[in-house]
Design a protein that fits this description.
By secondary structure, the chain is an all-alpha fold. Helix content is 83%, strand content 0%.
């Protein structure tokens, strides 16, 4: 069934609840990111302030990731997810209060900025838990034989929510203002919290409950570094995200280069995710398991080229097209990476492996924001984007030559084995 049915995972009721929960959560998260970047840059007009936002998320997310993976493998996943969403709702509430007229008129700009940075830092701490929890929970909801299909739908839902969040985030700033938009975010997160309890508690599959943190972390790291397919995919994606991402400085292009305002910012952000969504839905019908490694390398190479094209463009529709292409290419790489992780990771190590993935890829989003902000400050936004795209191309060529295991990776056999073992 999993080989021919593109809706296999959607036939499981709990998985649909999980997707709905993730839709609300990521939709709010994506809107919040857009609004906070807009608010901070509007207050400072300094690219360095955008780099600080990335740093405040990166530092706790990166250094907490190994420990969060250990905790996730030791704890029940449903209740842990509910706890994290509850904490995230407090962050959303705090950001909403910081943008109200009462605070804006009575607090200094620096005090507001420092408070925003503090909440973003706390959000980075909480984000270190979300990846391992969600990765582990999917494997407890769906049968192993449809992991690839579930990974595709889960990632597609995440990207759909990112599209809508980015799009509505920009438009809501124009229509409702910053405070009302952040209030909507808070409501969405609260809805996600209550949806969590429609999912049943799940068993803890880790047989080494009470294992020391040191031994637990060592086992997770060694597994990733000994699996060349996982390590190669994570390394490639990390470098691409680190140097090729432009999301953190899109606000500069929207305000100062393309001059399209908050609505244009929403369209620019949404075009990235829209490209990913279309690609992901196509892959539910046309699997990408054959010649997986080559497809991964080609997709990230196209991503790098599109970033260079975006950086050089001064025409709005061309910029939107370049970002759309980058999103489509990125969508393929994400599906491949998630499928590799789901198929190659043992059940009792999912939290730790996902946390290593977060350190490689998830935290590189925040570190990439720092790199983009600093590069934009030093060399200007256009040169920063072109430099990042060029570094991505160089990395793809180097890894393609130096890592034959990744280059020749084919997941057809792995998926077939999982079909017969159920």
């Amino acid at each position: 069934m999993a080989k021919t049915d593109p809706y296999a995972a959607l036939r499981i009721k709990e998985f649909n609840i999980f997707l709905l929960l993730r839709l609300f959560l990521v939709f709010g998260w994506s809107m919040q990111f857009i609004v906070i970047e807009w608010q901070v840059y509007s207050l400072t007009k300094d690219p360095w302030s955008l780099a600080l936002i990335g740093a405040c998320e990166f530092i706790p997310a990166f250094f907490m990731a190994p420990f969060s993976g250990h905790i996730v493998d030791q704890k029940e996943k449903r209740n842990l997810l509910a706890l994290c969403i509850a904490a995230f709702s407090l962050i959303s509430l705090g950001l909403f209060l910081l943008t109200t007229n009462m605070v804006i008129t009575s607090w200094s700009t620096n005090r507001i900025l420092y408070s925003i940075y503090a909440l973003v830092f706390f959000g980075g701490f909480m984000r270190s838990f979300f990846g391992p929890i969600i990765f582990s929970l999917i494997a407890l909801i769906v049968p192993k034989k449809i992991y690839p299909n579930a990974a595709t739908w889960s990632t597609s839902t995440w990207k759909t929510a990112a599209v809508l969040g980015a799009l509505f985030g920009g438009f809501f700033i124009s229509w409702m203002g910053v405070p009302s938009t952040l209030c909507v975010v808070f409501v969405l997160v609260v809805i996600a919290f209550f949806l969590t309890f429609l999912i049943k508690k799940k068993p803890i599959l880790n047989k080494k409950i009470g294992e020391s943190v040191k031994e637990s972390l060592k086992a997770g790291v060694l597994f990733v570094f000994h699996n060349k397919a996982i390590l190669g995919a994570l390394t490639l994606d990390m470098i691409a995200v680190l140097f090729g991402g432009t999301v953190a400085i899109l606000v500069i292009f929207a305000q100062d280069i393309l001059e399209v305002g908050s609505q244009g910012l929403g369209i620019l952000n949404a075009s990235i995710s829209l490209g990913s969504i279309i690609t992901m839905f196509v892959t539910t019908y046309i699997p990408i398991s054959k010649n997986t490694g080559k497809k991964l390398l080609v997709s990230i190479f196209i991503f790098g080229l599109s970033m260079i094209g975006f950086g050089l463009s001064s025409v709005f529709w061309v910029s939107v097209l370049m970002l759309f292409i980058s999103g489509a290419a990125d969508g393929i790489s994400m599906i491949i990476r998630q499928t590799i992780l789901q198929l190659k990771t043992p059940d009792d190590m999912r939290g730790r492996v996902s946390s290593v993935n977060s350190m490689f890829v998830g935290s590189s989003n925040e570190l990439g924001a720092v790199e983009s902000g600093v590069a934009a400050k030093l060399m200007g936004p256009v040169a920063a984007v072109v430099f990042g795209g060029t570094m991505t191309l160089i990395t793809v060529i180097a890894i393609g030559i130096k890592n034959p295991i990744l280059r020749d990776l084919d997941l057809t056999a792995d998926m077939g084995e999982n079909q017969t073992t159920e």
